[in-house]
Every structure is written in structure tokens, then in C-alpha cells.
Batch of 4 targets.
Target 1
Amino acid sequence: MSSRTEERSARVLPGVTMLVVSIATDLAGLALIVWTVVSAAREAAVTGGTWIGLIAGLLITGLGALGTLGLFVVQPNQAAVLILFGRYIGTVRTDGWFWANPFTVGARRKVSMRIRNFDTQKAKVNDRRGNPVEIAAVVVWRVVDTARAVFDVDDFEEFVAVQSETAVRHLATQYPYDSYEEHEVTSLSGDVDAVSETLQVELQDRLSRAGVDVVETRLSHLSYAPEIASAMLRRQQATAIVAARRKIVEGAVGMVDMALQMLAEERVVELDEERKAAMVSNLLVVLTGEQAAAPVLNAGSLYQ
């Protein structure tokens, strides 16, 4: 495995200073050319010195023009990666107007350091129980090491996209969609924060080799696949009904127990075990029934 490229600062000069130097060089070259032409005209002869003066003037002018190619601008939250003859010479992170070796102009790379969003496509994958689900996520990321982003991967933006899709698919296989059993404490739908944190840790491990920092991850879409959505909806409804019934029964039993205790403490009426059982049965029917109970009045003795 190849070693990672480490980012380092490039040595650059202020752009204004080098612009003045380039203009002065151009003017000096033009002045030499004019002086050479005027001298040749006065002497009415073209000598070897004339040719030397013209060639020197053209070279000086060309050197000044070449110097202007080294000027470049770095905007806020942007970096410039400088490459000289295929060799990485450093990165400029400070915003402003700078000058670097003009021969870096063809291989100079601008890299945005701004925070970006990537929304993964909806992926159909089986969850931990094998149920097909559709899942998607939003990944918030930014480049923190320009050398790794430019040299250690072919295209860091495409790398982020592919690795994000892969990580989301792998995440869906680690957890069930819903936790129906007590030992399953984490699920995709019930523990969004924990699942998002797991996704962020995995993505950071994948993208660190490209010099990318994962700021935040969040599931943007989660549902059962259409072919099982209706069946799973009925299962969720049944689970909710059972849970509600359990709560109702627990409350009814507590109310019946409280009623029997209050009757015994206040000595309102003395009930034998058979009558207690009948009372418990009647109260449970009233408290747990879905429809209002129709009372039946007993005008005779309690034991008739």
C-alpha cells in the first residue's frame, strides 16, 4: 500500500509586489528594444550589437510576461494545490492574491474547503432480519487535507459519493427496521441518533484516507420496500394494539385491586370469595371492554 501524501504549506510571494516587478521588467525590456532600434537608426547600420540588444530586450519582455502567469487568487475557504513538473510543492490556504512559480500554472488545483452536503440515492437492501427496506442518508462533509484529496484518490468527490452509498447499505444490514424483541435495543426506526452516529464513525474511517472530514450524517429516508410495506404495517398495528391492551389490562387489574381493598377497609359490604370473583369479572369486563357496558340493576338480595 502506498504511503499517504501529507499536506504542507507552499512558499509564495505577495501578488501586488510581483505584479510591479513584472511590469517593471516588461518596461525595461521594451526600453532596451526602443533604445537598440533608435541607436541602429542613428548609425544607419545594423550591427551585431543591435541584434544582441533586440534579443535581450525580447527575452526581458518575455520574462516579465511569463512572471504574470504566476499570479493567482485564493478565495475564502479555498485552497490552491501547487504542482511543479509533477512534484507536489505545497498548498496555499490563506485567502488573497499571491505569486508562485509560473510553471505551476498548468497543474495548479483549486480545492474548496467549504462544507458540502451529499444526499445518497434511495437504496433497497435487506435489514438484519432479511426484510427489504429502502434507506437514504444525508452526509455533511468537507476537505481538511488537500494533498490527500488530490493525490491519494482519483476524484475525491466521486470517492465520497461511492463510499457514502456503500456505508449506508452496510448500515442497513447491521440493524433491524423495528425492535420487536426485548434483546434488540437498537433499530433503524427507533434509534435514529445511535444509528446516525454509527454511520458517521464508519464513514469517517472510510473517507479519512481522502482527507475528508465527516461533519454530520443523518438518515433522510427509511421505509419498508413496497412489496412488504402493507404486511409490515399490519404487523406494526397489531403490535401497537397488543401493547395498548396490555396497558389497559394492567390498569384495570390495579383499579379492581384498589376497589376491593377500599371495600374491605371501609367495611361497606362483606363479600365472600365467590362474590369477589364475580365482582372482579364484572369490573374487568367494564374496564377492558371496547364498548360502554349496559348496567343491570339488581333490586333483590345480593345473593339472589
Note: The mean pLDDT is 82.
Target 2
Amino acid sequence: MTVTPLSTATNSIQSAIARASQVTGIDFDYLLGQAQLESGLHAAARSGTSSATGLYQFIDQSWLGVVKKHGAENGLGWAADSITKTASGRYSVTDPATRQAILAMRNDPSVSSLMAAEHASDNKTALEASTGRAATGTDLYMAHFLGLGGARSFLSQLTSNPQRSGASMFPAAAHANHNVFYASDGSARSLSEIYEKLSAKLDSSATTAGAIGMASDTLDTFKGTQPGAAEFQLASATVLPGNGESGGDDAATWAKATLDQINGTSRTLQATLLRPTPTTARLAYMMLASLGA
């Protein structure tokens, strides 16, 4: 099994999000935070409770709808032309293979980011018209989370009855997202509590995603771009012993082995680079030291 290195995958996803932001005018930080919150920046993420898939966790119907509306203008005319809207408002694709191909594009960071940004742009226009104010990032996320109609109802009730139970208004969404609609003691959260929770999560996710990008850039710089660059930098840097090693050479060997683990085994090991453990903190220190920081 081949695992894409953390830095390569993260930078590719962030580049796709940046392009989508540039094309649509939707704020990059919002799109980045949304992707981190929805999927942890994993392009092939899948929900266990719904059909939600990909970087932005589009369910089947929402994806087909946004591709139908915006596919042609973004070079996906074949997909848009294959999707029809029934009298009941549902989207369908006659050919099963074509339908699967369209749904599979949710796992493509470039297409997924672009459709998410187009969707956010549509929602921004609609929400600003209904609320009479500028849409916040949390408003936009609410429209993605509950659908435009659900977001309109939520925001309207948030203004007039902020203490109303969110689960009573959106039982299906509450069933699929228990931790959003219910507190740890099992009590139902109010609309204002849900809004505040999602706002805090969105802000935190944007910060986390930005930190992941910085870690990836640092790792790329540390490794260099040519084969053997990591070994060269380790050889030329002053690497301090401290994990039972007898000297600098042993410490350098440990650091190289740690980098090899991060880049060549599993997502779990990759993710440890971003978590402050004694091992990863020490590696980060050595990386910064090698850059003269």
C-alpha cells in the first residue's frame, strides 16, 4: 500500500482550496476551516451515518445538485448534462456508471473544493437576501450543514427564539450529528448553543488547518527537494542527543528514522507530527534548529 506523504497531500489540498477561493471569491480561511471540520483534510473521507463523502462531505443529492448548477461553467458539462431534476425536486442520473463517476468526483480535491466554493457563494447570496445582513462564515457553514432551507429556518428562529431546542427542529440532522445537537450529559442544545459551538469549531478548524500547512512546509524545507537532502541536513546540523543516544550520530539516526516513519507508513504515524508528544516535540526542535531558528 502506498501512502501519500503528509506534506504532499496537505499542500495539494490547500492549493485546490486556494484556487477555488480565487475563482469564486469565497474566503480561503472559511473554505479551509470547513474542509478541516468536515473531513480533517482527507479527500476520501466517508461518513458512517449518511452518504456524505469527500473533502467537504457532500451527500449524494447535494452533490448532484451543485454539479448540475455549476458543472458546465467549470468544465464539467458532461456531468451537468447527465443530471436531471425530477418533478419532486430530486436529482437523478439515468446511467449507473455515469452516476457513480459523478459522485466519485467528491474525492477529487480540486473538483470538491470548487463545487463547495460555488455552493457557498450561492448560499451567501441567498442568506444575505433573507437576513438583511452580511453572511458570516458560520451562516455559510450552517447552510452546508442543514441545507439552505434549514439554515434559513435556523437563523430565523435563532433571532426570535434562541433557546429553542435544535434537535426538535432538525431531528434527522440531530440523529446523524449527535455531538453537535446534544451536550455530553445528553441534554439537547439550544439554537444559540449550536450556533456558538459551530462557530468555535469553524474557527478552531481554520487554525488547525493552517498549522498543518505550516508543519508541512517546515517538513518540506527540512527534507529539501533532492534525494538525500534530509540526510545531508541531518549530517550538517547540530543534533543533540537525549533519548538514550550516546552522541550526535545516534541522535541523527533516530531523527531520520522518525522522518521515514512519518513519510512512509501510515496516516496515524503522519498525524503524530501534529500532536505534541515528547518524540514529535523533539523532532520539531531539531527541524527548527537545522534551519537556524
Note: The chain has two domains: 6-203, 224-290.
Target 3
Amino acid sequence: MAQYSLEKCAEFAANPHLRAPLSAFTANPRMRDPALYRPSPELAEAVNVALHLGIPLLLTGEPGCGKTELAWHLAWYFHLGEPLVFNAKSGSSATDLFYQYDALGHFQYSQNHAEALSPDELERRFIRYQALGVAIRSDGRRVVLIDEVDKAPRDFPNDLLDALDKLRFDVPELGKSYHTSDANRPVIVLTSNSEKNLPDAFLRRVAYFHIEFPKPDKMLEILGAKVLDLSQSQLKALCDHFYALRTDRELRLEKMPATAELLQWAAWLRDTGFPIVELARPGRLDAQARAALRASYTILAKTRKDLEALCQRLSD
């Protein structure tokens, strides 16, 4: 594992010809393996409701609880290829769900070329189909993930549902329309961080489910599946310490560490040879282990205040 060392800095400064080799990064494929996603029975039922009725599934829950991962899991389960992802923004419009037109690029091209482009050539050069547009133009069913729909303007959700009812869209720049049948209706997963209220008319036309943060026993299952080569005692020590941080009222963390942070933290401690079982008795850690644990809190904390609180808790 390539490491950055302050001691090496002085050595390299004294000898400019020396440099540390940086090895290729190797990701843990299990971290995002859709086959390892563990939905609750209640979430599975919500999925079946949405599929049976052909309506979008709206998911809420704190960041890191698995909202977006569900779309990848469903695409894997039904063998529908990778999900088509649309990240909603404050300026998103319903048209953006289907395609984007590079008007500036087309204008610049027209200024330098006398001959007009054919519709097919215009489409190839200056039209970029987006998630829902790609799904409607596909020969089969696809999973479409519309992430953080609450960030979009207030009329965006209703425009989205109107588009899904019609399963068609127009590209006036080309004089074309695209449509698909109910048999090829996309599977729509919507996520919301509940930053603002969504329109009532929209909520009446979706299936809704709130993903609760996993209980410790469920988290043990997730952690064991995603991070290999950990004993049961290590898994339990990690989960107990993690939940103790989340539930410590004196810490008052601004941003609670979530499942993604736990998985990264566990992998880091495992790879660095940290005595994980000793997390059950942090007061007995020696100075070196305490320093290593304090450094690892940079994975769990996301604000300066939270990092200081976690380090102070370890020092008490």
C-alpha cells in the first residue's frame, strides 16, 4: 500500500532525483456490488407495489442508507443493464430528463458551415439523450434513477409524472418524437433527502418508502458481506463502537456517519493492522493505537466540529 511519509519529504528535498512510486489504486469491488445489497422485507414489498402498478418508487432516508444503491440492485436483479442516472439540480427542467441540446455548439457550427445539417447529423452532433430519454428510446425495459428530486424546481416532479404517463417526448430541434409502450415502461426510482416538501399531487402518484438506518444486527450482516477477512469479534467491536458514536448524545454530531463511512472505516482499520477487537475497550489502547484510531476518525467525521468531538471523546 503506497503511503505518504513526512520523513521521506526531507529525504526527497535533499535528493531531487528520488521520488516515491505511487502504486495503482485497487478498489474493493464488494463495496458497490449490487448482488450484496440487503433490502429489508418492507422495502422489498414497496418495490413490488411500485412494479405492479407501474409507478415510481420514492425513497427517503438519511444519506448513506442505501437509497441510490437500490436502483443498481434492481437493475442487477432483473438483468436490465446499468441504471440510467439523472441527478436533479436546482435548475433542472422536465426536458433535461430526456435530452440536452447544445445550442451554442450548433450556432458556432452554422457560422462556419454554409450547408445545413440533416436531422440525423444534427442529432448525432448536438443532441445528448439523458436518462429517461435513453430509456424511452431503448428496445427493452430499463431502470432510471432520478437522484435528489427535491433539489429540482417545484414543478419538476409533476412534469416528470406527466411525461411518464405519456411515455413520449418531442425533440423540436429535430422535428422528431419518441415514444414507447407500457410493456417497456421504465422502472423509476426517485430519491429525496427531504430538503423541501414535494407537491401533494406528485406524492399521490408514487409509491413511498422511508429507509430506516440499519439496526446493529442488520449492519453486522452488511459489514460482513462487504468487508472480508474480519472475525465475528472484530465485526461486533466495529459495529458497537460505531453505534456508540452515533448514539452518544454528548457528542452532538452535526453529520452522523452512515453505512458508507462504516465500510470504509472498517476496511482501513483492517488493512492497517489495527487491533480491532480492542475497540470494545478503547481505554486500554496504547498510545500508538490511540493515534491510529484518532487518524481513522477522519473517515467518520465530515465537519471540523465533529472531528474535534470524536478526538476529544477518545482523549477523555
Note: The beta strands are 57-60, 84-87, 99-101, 127-129, 143-147, 168-171, 176-179, 187-192, 207-210.
Target 4
Amino acid sequence: MQDIIIDEEIKRILPALDETAYNNLEMSILAYGCLMPLVLWNGILIDGYHRFGILTKHDLPFNTISLEFGSRDEVIDWIIELQISRRNLTPMQLSYYRGYRYNLEKRIGGNRSGVNQYSEVGGQNVTQPKSQPTARKLAEQYNVSSRTIKRDAQLANAINKIGETSPETKMDILSGKTRISRKLLKELTGDSQADIKEIVTQISDGAFESKRPGAGTADDGNINHITDADTMQPWEENFAKMTDEFRQILRIHAKTDDTASIQSALRQYIDMLEDLYRDISGDG
């Protein structure tokens, strides 16, 4: 095993694998070996943390490649873009990564180095770095509106502030283990770190108040709550997942004037609700 630097900040950026996905990855590596090389930057592992853990556990060989970047922000930007392109992300994870990337790109701005962030060290094909994506360009890339990208940026800021106090709570929110409304996350953006710390403590203790001062009531459609997935009924989890997926589908169709596609998406959602209703009532 060669010396590889494990960076905890970078590791926490990556989405966690559930038990089934992890076991499938482990079985694949044991059967066929590690088909993809681990990716390094200045000796730091930037892609392949799950694979590296499995390889280390079973003392298996692996290959690495090294990429050059001009800054740590450019490394994280590359990691996020890679995760979005390859992972089956939840709507919350996807929003978080889009917003995180937008915030990074704003900070990087025109200060990118002349190093091609996608070139292999020692490689011959060196191109100019990409220009800074604006909200509009990112919106086009991810097939959402510019307003959505900016809302995602607020969400990412709030989740990262939570992560500064409790990386575990941040991972629970992104994985869906702890459910928190986007509206509430937006409200948390303006809170001080001391307030965030208090809220994280309440979440950990199971004593978080679902209502914040000035928040809407359930009657006006603004449901601001956090629910531990372990205490949810199966139908609640199914409904939450179903609704999140439908919002993503509808948001895509809403950008077009294809009424038939929108009607089809709505009909699919109605059918799923009817199936859920029958499951709960026992009429199935």
C-alpha cells in the first residue's frame, strides 16, 4: 500500500453509501478487483474513499492517478461535479451539491490557475481552465432555473454551517436520516453559529421545536419540521420520497410548454398517491 493522505473535509463531501450499495461495491471488488484507479491530488485522496476502505480492509492492490489543480477550492469543485455526474443522488443531495458548487465558483471567480484541473500529472494534453459558471450556466447544465441554483446556494450554506458544528448531523440531513424542510434551512442561513450549535444540540437530543418564530403554520402549507427517519412510519418515508421525486420531475417539465408531459407526470403522481392510500387503508 502506498502512502495516501486521507482528508476528512474532502471525505465528508462525498455522499454516504447505504449498506446495500456498500456491500455490492465490496462484492464487486472482491470478485473483479478495483477496476477504477484512485484519484490523488498532492498525495491526497480525492476520489475513491469507499473503494480505498474496502481495498485496505482486504489488503488488495490498486492503481492511482494524480491530477493537478490550482487550489483546494478547485479540487472540491471537481469532486462535486464528479459526484453529480455519476451518483444517483437524492433531491436534497442534488440541491446541496448544485448550491455548493455555485458558491465555490463564485469564490474561485477569475482566480483559477493556468493548470488544467482535469489533466493528469505529466500528461501532454493541457487545455485552458474552464471559465466561471454563472447561475444561468449552471442552471442550463443541470436543467433547472437560475432561481433554483441560488436557492440551492442558500441551502448549501445552511447545511455547511450545520456541518461546522456537527458533521454527523450534516450527513444525516443529506442522507435523509434526519428530515428538515428546505424553508427551514433557508431560515437557518442567517443564524449565528451559536444559534446553529443550539439547534444541532436540540436535534441530537430529539427536542428540536418544529416551529420557529414567524414561521408559517401547517394550515398555510409551510410545514417546517425535522423528523428522525427511525421514528417515521413506512408510509411517511414513502410519501416523502415520492413527493421529492415528483417535485424534481415536475420542475423539469415546467420549464417546457409540453402540457402533455406535465399532465402525464401529474397522473403518475396521482396513481402513486392512490396506491399509497390503498396500502394504508388495507384496501389493496
Note: Confidence is low (pLDDT under 50) at residues 113-119, 121-129, 210-232.
